[in-house]
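Running this now, will post back.
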Amino acid sequence: MPVYLPIKPKERLYQEIVDQIQQQILSGALKPGDQIPAERDLAERFGVSRTAVREAIKSLTEKGLIEVFVGRGTFVTNLSPDRVVESMTLLLRNEPHNVASVQEARELLEIPTARLTAIRRTDAHIARLRAISAELEEENSISARLVDGDTEFHVEVARATGNPVLVLLSQTIVALLRTERLYRDDFDGSRLPTALADHRDIIDAIADRDPDRAAQAMSDHLARVALPLA
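Update: finished.
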């Protein structure tokens, strides 16, 4: 059983509770599906008021570390990249000049990522990229299926680096662009054949283990598919 240590009174008392429970989750002392003690029990164990515990539970819930079910209790969630991506996209979605900022970040991330992928990729990664590309070839217009497939293509390029941080960042960036690409009237399918051809060029360069060509192919592709900023 996790050990809860009494807390000395200080400003933002609830943060001390958050820190302890968060550390137990990250260390594995508390695992996904484990139930957190009831509010009154936690207050007694920590030696604090129920108000402080309530604030801590709220903070941990907002972080996606726990989930409260009315009538059942509070449970540790299953940490996954999807939760992190969702939190980051919600945070960034209303930032000013969002599209321009995201496209700039995309270039700074995906071009060197393609370079690294050409060095580290495996045959399995190439097979997966070609399979995704083949599926995209079947679409002839901008649709949710095509946008999701294109998203998976770019995430797979990042995944082939073997770097989970690059995968997470790539997932966040393409998630931010997804709604814009689906619903903007000025983003039609006229550039689709070129974009699909770009994908093939990117894959070929990565398959040939040519970092410079892979980076250039990704750079050309992103320049051609960039969303209108006005």
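The two ends are 56 Å apart (CA to CA). More later if anyone needs it.
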